[in-house]
C-alpha cells in the first residue's frame, strides 16, 4: 500500500511541477502585458500620484513671479511714502521755527490765527500720510487675494493630474513626506500661466493744508 501511494506521488510530482511552472509563466506574461499599461494610465510624468497633496501657501505667493512683482511694487511705493514723510517733516519743522520767530513781533491775536492754521495743516498732512499707509496695506492684502483667486484653477488642475481629492496647507499638516508637496510645481506652473500684476495706484503727492499767510487786517 505504501509502495502504491509513493509511486502515485512520484507520478504526480512532475505534472504538478509543470503545472506550477506554467502558472508562474502565465502570471509573468500577464504582468508583462498589463503592468506597463496600468502604470502609464495611473502615473503621469512629473506629477506625484496621491489622494492628498500639500502646498505652502505663503511660499507659493512669495516665490512666484506674481508675488515678487507685487512685493517690488509695494516696496517702491512704501519707499516713496517714507521719503515724502521725511520731506513733509522737514518742511513743517522749518515752518514751525519760522512761526516761533514771528511770535516775538506779531500781535498775539494774529499769531494765534497763524498757529491754529499751522496746527490744522499738520493734522491734515498727518491724516493724509496715515491714509496712504493704510491704503498700501489694503493693496497688499488685495493683491494677495487676487493671487489666491488666480491660483485656485491651477491648483485644481494639479490636483486632478495627481488624482488627488484634497490639497492641504502645509501649516496645518503635522507630518508628511516631501513627495506629496506640490509647492515648487505649482510655482513653476503659475509663472507660466499668470499675467503680471496690475500697477498700484499713484499714492504720491501730499495734501496741502491752510497756507501760512499773513493775518488779515481788521
TrEMBL record:
Species of the source: Salipiger mangrovisoli
Signal peptide location: 1-39
Lineage: Bacteria, Pseudomonadati, Pseudomonadota, Alphaproteobacteria, Rhodobacterales
Cited InterPro entries: Chaperone_Skp, Skp_dom_sf
Descriptive protein name: OmpH family outer membrane protein
Pfam families for this protein: OmpH
Region (Disordered): 193-218
Classification via Gene3D superfamilies: Skp domain
Keywords noted in UniProt: Signal
